[in-house]
């Protein structure tokens, strides 16, 4: 719904709900060979996920002059409720011996994400523009996991895998971006400051970061459409909730996937130079440097090296160098070719 109060003021709101029910039965078998002896494991994993998702948005926009300047108040909220269960059965067969294993797990998760933004866009003239604002983000996660197995005909709680974990993240940010058109030069420069406070089991972080960015372009030849563009940006990648969640997801009897609640955020710097020909052909060279890159790696389980663990971790520093070209061709009205 959008309501125009008058020529200068308008408000809008939206609400959405969806529900997902997804079953993922999985049958696996594993042959483990040791000194000529084969141990066979047949397993059945019956997984069921039920998710409810609610989201709502609100915006208020006020035009503050005749040049197109605006003041905006934006807010949104998302809530996701997840109920995930697994019923598992395995039979291990070795020469002269057979063993069965019956176990199950259930995880209930609730995620709440809310943001509020106050944004000002001021146009001083057709050539000068200033954008500034403040934003607050609230991320909240609650997870309760229960793991059980059958022993002597009764369900027994597995305390080594069952857990309750809550995670809350507060992010306060302020930013300013200036844009200018000065003849053949086009300039965009900005700075964002963010303060992050996180709390939760095995998680407690407080850090402040600055993120500059700049885009400078120069028209070498306006008539021929030749220009040169230089760009720089520093960005952050925070660990996603499911990367932090230490819940074990069994892939087979010898492999499982889990999260890491001690992950740090990753910072990336990207610098590039682009040559534009005839307004459409581009050649770009650049470099990215990322510290504490978040990646998934495989390693032996600390308690049982015969099992493999897929876990998230922070790499030290990674560097990437790239060169890209884009060349679009329009041979006829119905034939377009784009080479990359």
Give a written overview of the molecule:
The chain is an all-beta fold. Helices cover 1% and strands 79% of the residues. The protein is built from one helix and 19 strands. It has a 15-stranded antiparallel β-sheet that branches. A four-stranded mixed β-sheet has the order 12-13-17-16, with no helix packed on it. The longest helix is centred in the last third of the chain and has 4 residues, at 241-244. It is extended, with a radius of gyration of 27 Å.
TL;DR?
By secondary structure, this protein is mostly beta strands. It has one helix at 241-244, and strands spanning 2-4, 9-34, 37-63, 70-94, 97-123, 128-151, 154-157, 163-182, 185-200, 203-221, 226-237, 249-252, 255-258, 266-277, 281-291, 294-300, 308-314, 317-332, 335-339.
What fraction of residues sit in β-strands? over 45%
Structural class computed from helices and strand pairing: mainly beta
Helix content: under 10%
Shape, per Cα inertia axes: extended
Task: Give the total of beta strands.
Answer: 19
On the 0 to 100 scale, the average pLDDT is 92
- H-E string: EEEEEEEEEEEHEEEEEEEE
- Figure out the total of helices: 1
User: What is Rg?
Assistant: 27 Å
Main sheet characteristics: 15 strands, antiparallel
Low-confidence stretches: none
Span from first to last CA?
Answer: 42 Å
Topology:
Blueprint: E1 2-4, E2 9-34, E3 37-63, E4 70-94, E5 97-123, E6 128-151, E7 154-157, E8 163-182, E9 185-200, E10 203-221, E11 226-237, H1 241-244, E12 249-252, E13 255-258, E14 266-277, E15 281-291, E16 294-300, E17 308-314, E18 317-332, E19 335-339
Parallel strand pairs: 13-17
Antiparallel strand pairs: 1-2, 2-3, 3-4, 4-5, 5-6, 6-7, 6-8, 8-9, 9-10, 10-11, 11-14, 12-13, 14-15, 15-18, 16-17, 18-19
């Amino acid at each position: 719904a959008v309501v125009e109060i008058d020529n200068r003021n308008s408000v809008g709101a939206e609400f959405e709900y969806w529900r997902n029910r997804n079953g993922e039965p999985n049958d696996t078998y594993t042959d483990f060979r040791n000194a000529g002896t084969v141990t066979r494991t047949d397993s059945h994993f019956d997984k069921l996920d039920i998710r409810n998702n609610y989201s709502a948005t609100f915006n208020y926009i006020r035009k503050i002059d005749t040049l197109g300047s605006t003041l905006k108040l934006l807010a949104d909220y998302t809530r996701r409720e997840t109920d995930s269960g697994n019923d598992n059965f395995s039979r291990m067969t070795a020469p002269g011996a057979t063993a069965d294993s019956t176990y199950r797990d259930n995880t209930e998760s609730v995620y709440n994400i809310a943001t509020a933004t106050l944004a000002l866009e001021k146009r001083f003239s057709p050539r000068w523009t200033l954008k500034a604002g403040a934003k607050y983000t609230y991320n909240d996660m609650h997870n309760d996991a229960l793991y059980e197995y059958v022993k002597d005909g009764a369900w027994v709680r597995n305390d080594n895998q069952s857990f309750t974990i809550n995670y809350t993240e507060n992010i306060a940010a302020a930013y300013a971006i200036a844009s200018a058109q000065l003849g053949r030069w086009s300039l965009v420069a900005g700075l964002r400051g963010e303060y992050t406070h996180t709390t939760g089991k095995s998680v407690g972080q407080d850090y402040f970061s600055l993120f500059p960015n700049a885009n400078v372009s120069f028209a070498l030849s306006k008539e021929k459409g030749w220009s040169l563009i230089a760009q720089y940006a520093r960005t952050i990648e925070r660990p996603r909730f499911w990367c932090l969640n230490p819940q074990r997801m069994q892939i087979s009897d010898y492999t499982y996937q889990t999260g890491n609640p001690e992950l740090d955020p990753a910072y990336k710097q990207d610098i590039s130079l682009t040559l534009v020909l005839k307004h459409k052909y581009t050649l770009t060279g650049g470099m990215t440097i990322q510290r504490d890159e978040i990646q998934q790696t495989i390693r032996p389980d600390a308690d049982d090296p015969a099992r493999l663990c897929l876990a998230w971790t922070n790499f030290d520093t990674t560097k990437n160098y790239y060169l890209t070209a884009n060349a679009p061709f329009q041979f006829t009205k119905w034939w377009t070719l784009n080479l990359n």
